[in-house]
Amino acid sequence: MEAEFEIAPVSAEFVFGQLAPAILNDLAKRYAEETGIAVKHWAFWVLSNGSSVPVPTQINASVLPPVRAAHLLKQTLEKVSQVEMQSWSEADRFMITTAIAQLKELNSIGFA
Length: 112
Prior knowledge:
Blueprint: E1 5-8, H1 12-16, H2 20-35, E2 42-47, E3 52-56, H3 66-84, H4 90-108
Antiparallel strand pairs: 1-2, 2-3
Helix pairs in contact: 2-3, 3-4
């Protein structure tokens, strides 16, 4: 079973707040390792459970399945939360923990 998604014009700051630069920087490195591309621009794949996953515009679902993109984001959020959680506002903590929970939900139902 494959995760369904829509491509949405959402700003990273809207989704990730002040943490957007750190998240996108780490995620760009993960995409470079995974696919060999240098990220130039981002799009968001919005999954059926509401998770917003930033994905380089140079790739599509045939290059990197949505479930793999969600897994890379989960790894990034977990890493960023370990490093920067002390400096976060309450809103940032809520947003990141909610995003991680949604991505874990995808894992638990067998999507990722």
